[in-house]
Amino acid sequence: MESFNASSSSSSVDDKQAVFILTVVRAVFVTLVALTGIVGNIINIIVIPRVPDTAMGAASKVVLTALSIADLIAAAMLLNGPLSLFTYEWLSRAGNIYCDITGFLTTLAPATSASFILLINLDRYIQITRPLTYQVLVTKKRAIVAVVTAAFYILTFLSFFVGISDESVDPIAYHYGFSLCLVSFSAPAFLLSTIGSFTVSVWLVAVLLLAIYARIFQIALRHSKKISAQMNSTARLRDTNATQGHDAVDGQDHGIAIVVDVFHQLDADNLNSTAHRKRDRVRRAKRDYDGIQRNIRSLRIPLVITGCFLVSWLPLTVMFTFASATGATFGNITWWITAVMSASNCSINMFVYAFGRSEFRKAFRKIFCRTSVK
């Protein structure tokens, strides 16, 4: 009996040690992600406005800076996770004002980021589909208005859906799986607010982004087919012209050959004129296509940012909705893994800019390095 009690006590101690070690590892990891996000987004806020407008449009810089501010807020809120190891009893009390404020900001920041990502892609879409009028349609002032409107839109709807939640549910509470204060999206009584919030902030954005990229792909494909057809037509005219010029004097005597040569020369001139017009159209279409290709290449950064955001946040929104609709429960580890995926999103954009834009690297070196940049 004494041996059994001793082994049980030893097992209990081992379990506590394992839980403690896991908790420390989680806290260290979240702290690193948060600090990376804070430092990275501060760098973005400093560097992006100093990138030349010729390399990154003024309107684009406004939206990207706003995205960095939203990600900075999200990263700062992550620090509440490690701190909650010492304050979770205080945070878990109902009606804690600090928990309510940080929980709302933790939810608001990524939702606002989603709206800014939509604006970034909309900016690229207009540049590709309206290249001649882009500078007139998209200006810095309009970008500022769009950013403020998007932020107000998210703030209004999120506040509304949180406000209409069932009174039996604390709309913002401490979530043990995340070690953070969050809006109670997983509560069954919160289902209507959960669906409404995610529809407005994530799912609708995802649908609109898919529509934008489908349209861009359609435009690129249509231009490619048009240019291919025109180039083939020009090649056929050139071959016809060469064949007729070669056959003009075959089997003819000298007098007839002169007359025939005159007529064929006239035909050749007409064919050459037609071919020149075709080639001019091909050159113009090729220039337009090259411009569209350059704009599509400029989509790489927004596409990476968008893909990272959707991969990071869609699984979490699905889990929240499923838990709220069915009452299903997930282990703290499962919640934490999805939380890490979503939380990491606020810290990756600096690396995307650094590896994807040479202009960003030049501006960074010019600001933070003493060596001159040629």
Automatic annotation (TrEMBL):
Spans through the membrane: 20-47, 59-81, 101-122, 143-165, 185-216, 301-323, 335-356
Keyword Membrane among UniProt keywords: yes
SMART domains found in the cross-reference section: 7TM_GPCR_Srsx (SM01381)
Gene Ontology molecular functions: dopamine neurotransmitter receptor activity, coupled via Gi/Go; G protein-coupled receptor activity
Pfam family, one: 7tm_1
Keywords, ordered alphabetically: Cell membrane, G-protein coupled receptor, Membrane, Receptor, Transducer, Transmembrane, Transmembrane helix
Limits of the G-protein coupled receptors family 1 profile domain: 40-353
InterPro entries attached to this UniProt entry: GPCR_Rhodpsn (IPR000276), GPCR_Rhodpsn_7TM (IPR017452), TAAR (IPR050569)
This protein's record includes keyword Cell membrane: yes
Compartments in which it is found: Cell membrane
Main location: membrane
GO cellular component, one term: plasma membrane
Topology of the protein relative to the lipid bilayer: Multi-pass membrane protein
Protein family: Belongs to the G-protein coupled receptor 1 family.
Name of the protein in its database record: G-protein coupled receptors family 1 profile domain-containing protein
Source species of the chain: Strongylocentrotus purpuratus (Purple sea urchin)
